[in-house]
Every structure is written in C-alpha cells, then in structure tokens.
Design brief:
197 residues; alpha+beta; two-stranded antiparallel ribbon; 15% strand; Zinc finger CGNR domain-containing protein; ABATE_dom_sf; ABATE
C-alpha cells in the first residue's frame, strides 16, 4: 500500500525490466521526469514493483546505489531499445557486457514467511538485489523470442517500451488508459474542430 504523497510507479509493461525503464518518464522529451532521485525512491520502487524489503540488519540504500540504478537503467534501455523487433544473437561491447553480467550476478531477494503467514521478499542489499532481478529479466528478454514483441509506445511524448502480449501483436500504446486514451481524445478534437477558413 502506498503512503500518502508517495510515488505510484508505473507497472504493466509486461516485464520487470521494462517497468524499470519507465522510471524515466517522457524519455527524450523536454518534460522528462526522473523518478529515481533519492534512496527513498529506489527503496519505494523495490517495495512496490519487486515486493522486496530490507532484511533485518540490511545495508541501507545510499545515493551511490541510486546513481548505479540509473546507470543500469540507461544501459538496459540502450540494450533493449537497440534490439526492438530483433531476436538474433546479442552483440554487446565487452565493457557493457561485463556490467550487465555483474548486475545479474548479485544475490536476488529471498523469500521470507512473515508472522502473519504471508510470503515476502527481502534482501541484505536491496539495491543490489533489485538490480539483479532487473538485469536477469532484461538479459532473458533480450535473448528470447519475446523480444520480437517489444514495442515503443506510440504516444507522442511517451516512448516507453512494453511487451505486446495482444493476440494480433498490433498494440500501439503502453497503456490504453493513459497514452491510448490521450491519443483518442486528441484525434477526436482534431475531427470535431471547426475548419479554419
């Protein structure tokens, strides 16, 4: 449950790694919005999107972890965006490959049964564990046939990547409720606007 005033991170891109990329909203637009600015925001993303919380005595999330998460996000974006619609062998420069493999090799969150009998996930290093999950998901995605179904949102400001799981494979927007709805409203305004003359 989100606390009042907390960020509600966008989910629903079809893969964890694609949701992670969406923490930079309106990528490349003048109104670009960074959602991972502080350790608290990275921890909130981990809790909301990975259901991962710090274990007892865990290492605190620091600003350097936020910087590393943002670096990872941009490396992963370059990897995935560069492969849109492609499923051939992944050719990645050695230094980028080394970083991706290092992020993926960190220990992931582990399951923990709480006192109420609910399954929770926790980690001694939440930032490292979350980057491990995200990197593993991205590496799996970029080397799988599912990569053929990764699309860029058709929203003029959005550009988010999403996995098109629709049967015909012709989905245009990352979210019908957001970008798709905005585009339909814009098209309707254009159709119903009086002709200038």
């Amino acid at each position: 449950m989100n606390r009042p005033g907390s960020i509600v991170f966008r989910q629903g891109a079809g893969r964890l790694s694609l949701d992670f990329l969406r923490t930079l909203r309106y990528r490349g637009d003048a109104g670009e919005v960074e959602e991972l600015r502080t350790p608290q925001e990275l921890l909130a993303w981990a809790e909301q999107c990975c259901a991962c919380a710090p274990a007892a005595g865990s290492r605190p999330v620091r600003q350097e972890d936020v910087n590393r998460a943002r670096e990872a996000r941009e490396v992963l974006y370059g990897l995935l965006a560069g492969r849109l619609g492609d499923t051939g062998p992944v050719r990645v420069p050695a230094d980028v490959r080394a970083r991706l493999n290092a992020w993926a090799s960190a220990p992931p969150p582990v399951p923990h049964l709480d006192a109420a009998g609910r399954l929770r996930w926790q980690a001694g290093d939440v930032a490292g564990a979350v980057l491990s999950l995200v990197a593993r998901d991205a590496l799996d995605l970029v080397t799988s046939p599912a990569m053929e179904r990764v699309r860029r949102c058709g929203g003029p400001r959005c550009g988010a990547l999403f996995l098109d799981n629709s049967r015909p494979g012709k989905r245009r927007w990352c979210s019908m409720g957001a970008c798709g709805n905005h585009e339909k409203k814009r098209a309707m305004r254009e159709r119903t606007a009086p002709a200038s003359g």
